[in-house]
Amino acid sequence: QVRLAESGGGLVQPGGSLNLSCTASGDMRYIKSMGWYRQALGNQRELVASVNNRGSARYADSVKGRFTISRDNAENTIYLQLNNLKPEDTAVYYCNAYMTYVGDEHDFWGQGTQVTVSS
Question: Is the pLDDT assigned to residue 17 strictly greater than 90?
């Protein structure tokens, strides 16, 4: 079992910045990647950014060049730096940990943190 604790959401004006963090605890042996998803009202949950155990990151096209994901393996923590925020970035942001083991796979989720971009 893996538990994820997020922090760092809030209200920011367009063009502003936020930093989200997510710390994982529990059995991390089979976690292959961690990342951030978001879900806006009326929309499906979508991938924002993820980073695997080798440090390779991927991003949604809509956030490339504005968001940066990073990982502190010693602290089991990932960060998401959100720059040049736009109103369309408004959503609940969820931390994710993806596990695979002997052909089985499982996603763990945090409780979510609200990001609101508005003037």
Answer: yes
Cα–Cα distance, 95 to 117 (Å, whole number): 19
Average pLDDT over the chain, rounded to an integer: 96
Amino acid letter, residue 56: S
3-state SS, residue 73? helix
The pair phi, psi for residue 72, each rounded to 5°, is -115, 100
The pLDDT value given to residue 1: 87
CA 46 from centroid of its chain's CA atoms: 10
Cα dihedral sign, 28-107-76-113: negative
pLDDT score of 103 = 84
- Tell how strand 113-117 and strand 10-12 pair up: parallel
Per-residue confidence (pLDDT) for residue 19, from 0 to 100: 98
Bridge partners for 35 per DSSP: 50, 96
Enumerate residues 6+ apart whose C-beta is below 8 A from 71. 34, 51, 55, 77, 78, 79
In the numeric block, which tokens belong to residue 14?
A: 């367009």
